[in-house]
Design goal:
Largest sheet: 4 strands, antiparallel
Strand content: over 45%
Mean pLDDT: 94
Number of domains: 1
Structural class: mainly beta
Number of helices: 0
Low-confidence stretches: none
Helix content: under 10%
Order of helices and strands: EEEEEEEEEE
């Protein structure tokens, strides 16, 4: 059985195992490659045959990771229009992300 945890970050939940890489929203502004990231909101921890479920979080559990690279997502176009009024508006957005490699699950 592999060890895994479910963590919450940026309003989303991720299932992570040691060695995984995941793309999380950039909430801390100034992290660079090699900086440490700690996920404090751990919802579930599975180690071997034991399964600990938090209500809502598991007490004392943390997931440590390291920033591989800061990235930016694809551009999303937002188009607004009101019929028969001649109103058209185009807007764009690119989300900032961190690619994080999970190092350890501490429970």
């Amino acid at each position: 059985m592999t060890d895994y945890a479910i963590v919450e970050h940026g309003g989303k939940q991720y299932r992570v195992s040691p060695g995984d890489e995941l793309l999380v929203e950039r909430t801390a502004p100034d992290l660079s490659q090699g900086d440490a990231v700690v996920f404090e909101r751990v919802m579930l921890v599975s180690q071997g045959d034991t399964l600990r479920v938090g209500q809502p979080t598991v007490d004392g559990a943390r997931v440590r990771g390291q920033v591989v690279a800061p990235e930016r997502g694809d551009k999303i176009r937002v188009f607004k229009k009101k019929r028969r009024k001649g109103f058209r508006k185009t807007n764009g957005h690119r989300q900032d992300y961190y690619r994080v490699r999970v190092e350890a699950i501490e429970a």
